[in-house]
Amino acid sequence: MSKYCMSSGYILEAEKVSAEYFSSEKDIPALRGVDISLREGECIGIAGESGSGKSTLALTLLQLIDEDEGRISGGNIVFHEKASGEKINISSINKSRLRKVRGKEISLITQDPYTSFNPVIKLYRHFREAYRVHNKVFKERDLKDKVSELLDSVNLRPAEKILNSYPHQFSGGMLQRASMALALLNGPRILIADEPTSSLDVTIQKKVMETLKDLRCRYNLSIIFISHDLNLISEIADRIYILYAGKTVESGPASEIFKNPRHPYTEALLKSLPKLGARGSIISIPGRAPQPGAVKEGCSFAPRCSYADKKCFKKEPPPVLSGERAWACFKRQ
Amino acid sequence: MMIPVLFGITLITFFVMHLTPGSPVDGLMMSPEVDAGAILRLRETYGLDRPLHIQYFSWLSRVATLNFGSSFRDGRKVTLKIAERLPATILLNVVYLFLIFALAIPIGIISAVKHNKAIDKILAVCVFAGYSVPAFVVALILMMYFGVELGWLPVSGMVSINYEFLPFWSKVADIASHLVLPAVSTAIGGLAFLSRYLRSSMLEVIKQDYIKAARARGIPEKSLVLVHTLRNAFIPMITVFGLLLPALIGGSVVFETIFSWPGMGRLAYEAIMARDYPVVMGIGVVMAVLTLIGNFLADIGYAAADPRIRYE
Predict the structure, then answer these.
(1) Which of A14, A45, A207, B129 is the least crowded, having the fewest Cβ atoms under 10 Å away?
(2) What ipTM goes with this model?
(3) How far apart are CA A332 and CA A21, in angstroms?
């Protein structure tokens, strides 16, 4: 269990979520029935290669897939509202209700911080605009205090100077921390961090990760941490979901998965992590991750799997459940 | 950078003007009362007998002291002739600009927000119809309908005959009614360009990740479009605006002639027809200066609109 205080109640449950992108020939499935659940105060890690559907999952949770580009084709996303104890089905609420969830209950930080700010608007206006959407009446003074406190908690000082600057005047690491402060402005309970450090230097990565952990404690956040980097995920996540070709191939508590992976893909991923001081070449997984839409019958990992036999190419393996863990493989029953 | 450009424009204007067949004294040659000697003397007086490059440099040296010379036709100062025509042109173009932006911006926004929907397609057909029909045809149709058939609006000139005797507010109304047809017929042609440009520019911005990020913060669609998208979509429009400034004066040659509008355009047309070199050259300089001012304003506009290119 996590070292952070948490109740065991679920705050977000997504089941059988599917999404597809339009293309000129046929729709390309990016998510093919993914289940995830998040408890209050918990941090889950979503790992996968590019094309595995992890960013699509982030967008789907907030219903942010552009209607020209694709659609959410199935599943339910249920958010448990704290104040009313009500369960909100994000996938079916109307737009104005959805706006009250976005930023207020669930916030998103993206990979490239420069793309989360409007380049021609100063930082303060971003904060003010986001605050005004969720608080009809407020005092300018209160907002300023709140923003200063938030900036302070992500180690950005002095607030006055930061807020009077344009996004391009910041370094990537600073701006990513500012985007965290912005994401937390309306006191969300869930933070979706989609590869929050991937566009940053390794040294800056470390700082951003520290900030994220610190914020998690301070504001009692539940975090969905999406990354292709298992090392980063292991730093913060309590539980892990491994995505492959738009499906969850394995999920469970982080420590158990790292110690004893069940799915051959997870095993191969962990083997390919370079170890400090180790000699020889880095082990890689043969072949390439399938392009979304090019998935054939059977287990999608079978073509790259060293354990695969005929059965694996014919039928899709059903998930094997064992306590908190689940994996989908015929070979590991 | 501006001086060489200005120099180049006057050089080209000068030689193109002199390459055109005919000369300022042609009209006189037809007259039986003017003998060949008189024409020679005239040519000498105006320096038309000297080699072209000499003529150009003597014109240039005079212009350097801001002396643009006098018209061949009525002997009045070129600067004076231009100055008395400029206000009418500026008035027409300010109204035109206001009109075209007031129409093109909403059309562009609606087309972008509802792109590929019915309303977008209907608007596209309308603006392209206005663009495809030659502007003078549109002008004549409008004149025919609103001026002749309905008799609502005057079809030519800037003021009515009794203008002098009208009280102040009636004067304003009189000019305004004269403005409607020329301004509307000019605007119809330009609408397609500006509104489609804004549409594509907005569609470009709407796709940007920062719009998605703002949406993720719960910002309503209305502010996404009107604040975030429009502001960024306007940046490339500034160039268009800069280019429009001189093109307006050039374009108005046609419209001012059709509507007998007493502006620069008509002055240019009359001067070219009469081979009134000093006036043509004077207008050329004004146009060149306007082009440069347009570019300069566009640069300043860029810096104002986009903090990323501000000079620190």
Answers:
(1) B129
(2) 0.86
(3) 33
d(CA B29, CA A171): 76
Who's near A204: CB < 8 A, 6+ residues apart? A171, A172, A173, A176, A197
Topology of domain B89-305, CATH: MetI-like fold (1.10.3720)
Nearest to A10 by CA among A193, A190, A214: A190
Check CB contact under 8 Å for B218 and A119.
Answer: no
Which of B210, B218, B231 lies nearest to residue A103, judging by beta carbons? B218
Residue B247 is predicted with a pLDDT of: 65
| Mean pLDDT in residue range A179-190 | 92
Domain ranges of chain B: 2-63, 89-305
pLDDT of residue A122: 92
Q: What is the pLDDT of residue A4?
A: 44
Nearest CA distance, B241 vs chain A (angstrom): 20
Report chain B (312 residues): mean pLDDT per 10 consecutive residues: 81 84 71 76 78 84 82 83 85 87 90 89 88 85 86 80 79 85 84 87 88 91 88 85 71 80 86 85 84 85 82 55
CB nearest to A62's CB, from B209, B216, B223: B216
Whether the CB of A213 is below 8 Å from some CB of chain B: the reply is: no
A102 and B209 within 8 Å at the Cβ level: the answer is: no
Q: What is the C-alpha to C-alpha distance for residues A180 and A154, in angstroms, rounded to an integer?
A: 8
